Amino acid sequence: MSTKRILIVHDDRLLSNLYREKLEGSGFAVDAVRALDEVPKILEARRPDLVLLDLVLREGGAVQFIRAWRQDSMTAEIPILVLPTNLGSLVNAAMQAGVSKVIASGTHPLGSILDTVKVTLGMPGLGGALDAPLFQPDESWLNMVLASAPEALNLMRHCLPGLISVPPDLSALRALWTLVHNFADRAALLHSKVLSRIASSLDVLMCDLNDTPEQLTAPTLRTIGHAIDFMGVLSDSANLSRTEEPANARVLVVDDEESSTQFVTSAMQLAGVRSEAATNATKALEMLDGKECDLIFLDIGLPGMNGFELCARVRALEAHKRTPIIFITGMPTLQHKAQASLSGGNDFVSKPSNPAELAVKALTWIVKHQLNLT
User: Fold this and answer.
1) Which CATH superfamily is domain 139-240 in?
2) How far is CA 7 from CA 51, 104, 269, 315, in A?
3) Which of 74, 371, 55 lies closest to 238 in space, CA to CA?
4) Of 327, 206, 197, 219, the residue nearest 268 (C-alpha)
5) pTM score
6) What confidence tens digit (pLDDT) does each residue in 101-118 have?
């Protein structure tokens, strides 16, 4: 049987090299390019048996590439596999364009990629071999991911000034998304999933903002900057080793509006954390009495005791002196923000908000609480 040839299209050099290494270790021949305009040169030289494509490329165009690939008689039958991603809207567009399969994000990303490649090419799957050393990133790769984090995060920060203008610089917005997306893919290789969860949620937010850049507000930009800075904290292996799985966190949503509660709850589901709800201050205090909590979303306009008064009461409870509290309101004012801070609040969000932004904010504060940074 002739050696099967794989073409990787991914603009992150570190990840592309890792995928190449693991595929070649499994007996495949591999070509790799970092931009779509390099693909024709590869096709002129040799025909791939399968394409591994990342959907978030700096110059964009991945979905259009899939569509053109399917319409060309020379390439129509060559399968295209999309590398693991949680970007639902982009995945749907890729499926409609004719992608063969989107590789599932599993516990072992490299194993999932290799298994799907083999099965798609009619070869025996990995089965129980997913845990084999070949299909795991070794310690040198994991150390490289963490060592490369400061540079990646600095590149993200350099994109932020371009987002301050109105309207924002779309090239800076796209560049930031690409950097965040690649960082999230790198973080998915780590043994700890905490950094991966935050980066993945930020990836979703950046995808939304690239689709609707008018949603990029000053508070959203602060959320992004805050998350980037905190990912830098987590890129320190000593800090990362002290974190726990965010899915085990307890989040309390205090709001008398059912629609608002449902919105925050759905955002917490996106973040992968469980939440409980209270419709008034009395109920909230009962639910907090003697019980630990990792994050509280607190509406300002509660009936009876308002959110500021409730926040002060919560801070008087020994168990919740440092519990992160995020105020939510439909009418943010400078006075509200000042009162929120004076009563003991940590952060502030407006209604309505982007659910992905809320997920990023929640995960960041939950993990900061774990590290005693609140």
Assistant:
1) HPT domain (1.20.120.160)
2) 5, 19, 35, 56
3) 371
4) 197
5) 0.92
6) 999 887 788 888 999 999
